[in-house]
Design the sequence.
């Protein structure tokens, strides 16, 4: 019954598309109509290593970086050891206020090489031209020889009118301009993978999603007009602050907020299919718990609890086969949302380090405890089974754990991130039927197969 349940539930998720496949035309996939009516899954935490699922996209381990940030000499070793694999450039709205130059690209690509990772570049839309966008592609890929595959146009056009007083920017004007820019860029390099629309605050409740002054939904109108040209559907999400008079959320609101992604991702897949008739890869290109500059409290983005929130959000996106995720952002001296300040790293940094222990090929896994999330994956480098476990609760939780039919689990390496431990290998352990997970923790079990 377990195998049947996993096989059927897996049909409800689009296949993760790897770097090469992202350049291919997406396949038409109907929404699933079959769901299991009953099933019997083991109590506690369970992993079935014999049921192999999709590849985890390396592009989910990303951040936003731009010329307005700096990786200082003090932070260079930490940056290289971070586990980050993807950069969105230039992060935020800097790229809609400035023109990119060759020296910006040189600095960017040096950082990409440090990570041995990949990059997506956004061409200027506001106060730019299609010719400028085409020239940027020509500069990066022809003159400088970098062969960057992933490109977008503009940042949060759904806010141009309200935040930057650009009166003409409604959905119709944006969709028309976006197409002109993308066609000009593709004329230079037809093999580009195009991301869009990078609108702000997509949620599962469509009544709350961004609308223009005519009441038209930014995401739906974009997909109707440009669904044939976009290769990855992208948006941004910051759940807090819900009130600018009180930008810091209560503990329980932050703790429970990660669960919204179990509704947001199915909703965006539904909208994409309804408007385009196709299943298209998904990217969340700006995300954090809070877009304000709030810092220094138990629930601001520089806190350890926020790092646990982020670990759980990322786990849910991986479970639902999201293709791209870029956290906001890499560096800031004052704002809490950054992974680094000028001289040190913040708790969210360690989330990427512990995810760096996770394998690439996901296998079936689950948990019957609300505050415990599990992702399991085979690791190609050594053939190990890796099991990532998150406990969002304040207190330790002890749960039964079952991996296949094994009664005793020999763990070669136990990695831990919690309020007292910044992603360390605690050594080998033997698990006999149950496991204790510390409060506000992420653990990775590395098991030889």
Sequence:
């Amino acid at each position: 019954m377990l195998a049947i349940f996993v096989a059927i539930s897996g049909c409800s998720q689009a296949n993760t598309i790897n770097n090469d496949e992202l350049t291919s035309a997406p396949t038409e996939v109907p929404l699933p109509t079959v769901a299991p009516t009953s099933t019997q899954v083991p109590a506690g935490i369970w992993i079935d290593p014999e049921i192999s699922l999709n590849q985890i996209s390396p592009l989910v381990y990303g951040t936003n970086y731009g010329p307005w940030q700096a990786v200082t000499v003090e932070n260079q070793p930490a940056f290289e050891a971070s586990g980050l694999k993807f950069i969105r450039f230039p992060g935020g709205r800097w790229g809609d206020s400035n023109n990119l130059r060759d020296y910006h690209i040189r600095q960017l690509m040096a950082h990409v090489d440090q990570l041995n990772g990949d990059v997506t570049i956004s061409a200027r839309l506001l106060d730019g031209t299609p010719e400028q966008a085409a020239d940027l592609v020509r500069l990066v890929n022809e003159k400088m020889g970098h062969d960057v595959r992933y490109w977008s146009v503009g940042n949060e056009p759904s806010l141009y009118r309200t935040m930057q007083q650009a009166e003409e920017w409604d959905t119709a004007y944006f969709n028309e301009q976006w197409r002109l820019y993308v066609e000009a860029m593709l004329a230079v390099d037809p093999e580009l993978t195009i991301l869009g629309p990078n609108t702000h605050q997509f949620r599962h409740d469509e009544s709350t999603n961004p609308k223009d002054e005519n009441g038209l939904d930014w995401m739906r109108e974009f997909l109707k007009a440009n669904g044939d040209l976009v290769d990855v559907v992208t948006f941004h999400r910051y759940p807090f602050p819900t009130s600018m008079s009180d930008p810091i959320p209560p503990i329980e609101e932050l703790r429970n907020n990660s669960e919204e992604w179990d509704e947001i991702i199915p909703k965006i897949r539904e909208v994409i299919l309804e408007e385009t008739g196709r299943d298209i890869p998904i990217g969340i290109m700006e995300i954090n718990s809070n877009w304000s500059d709030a810092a220094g409290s138990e629930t601001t983005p520089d806190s350890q609890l926020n790092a646990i929130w982020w670990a759980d959000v990322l786990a849910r996106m991986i479970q639902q086969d999201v293709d791209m995720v870029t956290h906001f952002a890499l560096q800031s001296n004052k704002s809490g949302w950054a992974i680094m300040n000028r001289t040190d790293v913040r708790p969210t940094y360690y989330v990427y380090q512990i995810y760096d222990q996770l394998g690439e090929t996901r296998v079936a896994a689950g948990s019957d405890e609300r505050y415990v999330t599990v992702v399991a994956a085979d690791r190609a480098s050594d053939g190990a089974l890796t099991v990532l476990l998150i406990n969002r609760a304040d207190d330790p939780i002890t749960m039964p754990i079952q991996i296949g039919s094994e009664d005793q689990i020999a763990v070669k390496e136990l990695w831990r991130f919690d309020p007292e431990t910044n992603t360390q290998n605690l050594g080998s352990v033997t698990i006999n039927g149950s496991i204790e997970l510390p409060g506000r923790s992420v653990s990775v079990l590395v098991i030889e197969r």
